[in-house]
Amino acid sequence: MKRLFNRLLPKSWRSTVVTIPVIRLQGTIMAGGGQFRPSLSLASTAGLIEKAFGFDAPAVAISINSPGGSPVQSRLIFKRIRDLAVEKNKKVLVFVEDVAASGGYMIAVAGDEIFADPSSIVGVVSASFGFPELMKKIGVERRVHTAGQNKAVLDPFKPEKKEDVERLKALQLEVHETFIDLVKERRGSKLKDDPDLFTGLFWTAKKGLELGLVDALGDMRSVLKTRFGDKTQLKLISAPRGLFGRFGLFGSRFSAPDIAAAAANGVLDAAEERALWARFGL
Hints:
Layout: H1 2-8, E1 19-26, H2 42-53, E2 59-66, H3 71-88, E3 91-101, H4 103-108, E4 113-116, E5 121-123, H5 132-137, H6 162-187, E6 202-204, H7 205-211, E7 216-217, H8 220-228, E8 233-236, H9 256-278
Parallel strand pairs: 1-2, 1-8, 2-3, 3-4, 3-5, 4-7
Antiparallel strand pairs: 5-6
Helix pairs in contact: 2-3
């Protein structure tokens, strides 16, 4: 509406300022999360995405900094972005910060164009880890009672079994193939015919540019001002907060057991998150 009204004004009166909404997607990708340890998921990002696409702007800019995580949540976020881009007829410009790997890159390919810093890391990886030795050190005994012989398969607190690992590899291969199909669909002829492209390796954006994983090197502000004019303004879309912040200054919304349970879960979440970032030296 604002742009339509602007076009009706005499040329000398028209505003030349373009405001581009910006979404910042930072962190590991996983379902759940919470007040104590937020994560990227469709539930946590849908409101931001829809708000950004509701802006009267020619494009939506998305900043991504994620080592990956849940392939399901990654694809759901990707799909929500693409659905709204088509519905609202808007371009999506993605900017990679430190890393967009695995699920992070899956979200990145929702962009019509992908930009990155020369030292950004892009690619796809997959891994798993367990805690049996840690459990011994801290004196915790793991007890699992199941009704089926495979109910405790790949319990991260128990030593690996060869047959369980083989099954995991088969599942990962299927997920990896879905990822490959998605990247090929979005990047198409931009991708170079390189045998290492989908082997699970990751590269700096400089090499990623050669491989066709990114379109150009550059930062968000510079690219947007070049594209839409020097007067272009960036509007960060953020989640609304309560009057006294996330936890509530008066009358906390959390009981002592809630806080204790969240802290315990947070230890494991933090370990997994740290392992994801550590793969890239971050």
